[in-house]
Amino acid sequence: MNLNEAVGMRLKKLLEEKEWKNYTIQKEGGVPRVTVGRIVEAKIKIVKLDTLYQITQTLNISLKEFFDDPIFDNVTD
User: Fold this and answer.
1) pLDDT per residue as tens digits for the range 20-63
2) Is residue 77 predicted with pLDDT exceeding 80?
3) What sequence ranges are listed for the domain HTH cro/C1-type (predicted)?
4) Which of 49, 58, 64, 72 has the highest CB neighbour count under 10 A?
5) Burial class of 74 by CB neighbour count within 10 A (0 to 12, 13 to 18, 19+)
6) Is the CA virtual torsion 75, 10, 63, 32 positive or negative?
7) CA distances from 64 to 27, 48, 61, 75 (A)
């Protein structure tokens, strides 16, 4: 699995845990829902760090918490 796929899967999992939709990130944090959707679907090749930071702040977690997941142990690129 590549990094953008892992980021997308992690974000999807966090959204599901909170029972949030992509729109909630837009409403609460200002990141367009289309951008969130493209990240979740791994359609963005490079996720900007400032965008990911804005998303994690909206989810009320740190970047460390975001990346502290076993899914990132399988990243190959």
Assistant:
1) 999 999 999 999 999 999 999 999 888 999 999 999 999 999 99
2) no
3) 30-66
4) 58
5) exposed
6) positive
7) 24, 16, 8, 16
- Mean pLDDT calculated for residue range 12-25: 95
* pTM, full prediction: 0.92
Query: On the CB side of 1, how many CA atoms lie within 13 Å of its CA?
Result: 15
Q: What is the DSSP string of 7-36?
A: HHHHHHHHHHHHT--HHHHHHHH---HHHH
Three-state DSSP class for residue 77 = coil
Nearest C-alpha neighbor of 10 from the set 68, 77, 76: 68
Tokens of 41: 């679907």
Distances (CA, A) of 1 to 44, 52, 60, 61, 71: 14, 19, 26, 24, 9
Q: 44's torsion region: left (phi>0), alpha (psi -120 to 50) or beta?
A: beta
